[in-house]
Amino acid sequence: MSYDLAVLRGQLGERLHYFEEIGSTNEEALRLGQSGAIDGSVIVAERQLAGRGRRGASWFCGEGKGLAFSMLLRPQFERALWPRLSLVAGLAVAKAIEAAGLFPEVKWPNDVLIGGRKVCGILMEAEKDFAVVGIGFNVGQADLPQELREVATSLETEGAGELARETYLLGVEAAFVNYARLIATDFPYLVEMLRERCALEGKKIEFLVGQDRREGFCQGIGDGGELLVRNGGKVERYFAADQIRPLL
Question: Residue 131: phi, psi to the nearest 5?
């Protein structure tokens, strides 16, 4: 089913940039940012042909069933805090999904999981004076490719109630705006929310730091939003890591 553009335009106004087909909403958001587009611009596509995730991974998005959009941000707080936008995005998606009667978890930094399987991926990219947060999640994709079914899921597969894609999109956008306001003023509140949803706490995990593969036991989320990992008798703090996964 197509987006209800009247609903989206009614809420987003001139901030909405809608495309029937696009290579990547993040690429378009980066282009718009360089052209002076306003803070809070939202780029939405019915079909995304070259969506991507962290470290160049692709993102599957079935036509009319997935949700792919990017937000253009011009933060007014210090740049050192910008990485927190990525954490906030995961929380915003989780909050929006709650409206469907589900309680998702967040796998640090921002993968959103239901029942241990990924329902949403988030990619943040930053330029000199703006940032872009791209969000892709599976709404009605009960027909996920076989090779993805062990690691990915959709709201439909998980028995979510019937909500239109624009409802999820606007829910994410509204929650994100509210949470982003707290990044510089009440980050401890956001950290507590992250801790409540942490999918990795207490589990043995492996992950990449650069090209170095490491492992340890996740001790949760630190006060600065970092990942805490116990290795032997020492708890190490990671503000950046990739390919994080629990070990059996």
Answer: -130, 155
Q: Where are the domains of the chain?
A: 5-197, 204-246
Question: For 18-74, what is each residue's pLDDT tens digit?
Answer: 999 999 999 999 999 999 999 999 999 988 887 655 555 555 555 556 889 999 999
Domain 204-246 fold is SH3 type barrels. (2.30.30)
Percentage of the chain beyond pLDDT 90 is: 75
> For 153-171, what is each residue's pLDDT tens digit?
888 888 776 678 899 999 9
CATH topology of domain 5-197: BirA Bifunctional Protein; domain 2 (3.30.930)
Handedness of CA 240, 123, 127, 224 (dihedral sign): negative
Residues in the chain: 248
Taking the whole predicted model, whether its pTM rises above 0.85 is answered as: yes
pLDDT tens figures, 131-151:
999 999 888 765 666 666 678
What is the spatial distance between Cα 113 and Cα 47, in angstroms, rounded to a whole number? 23
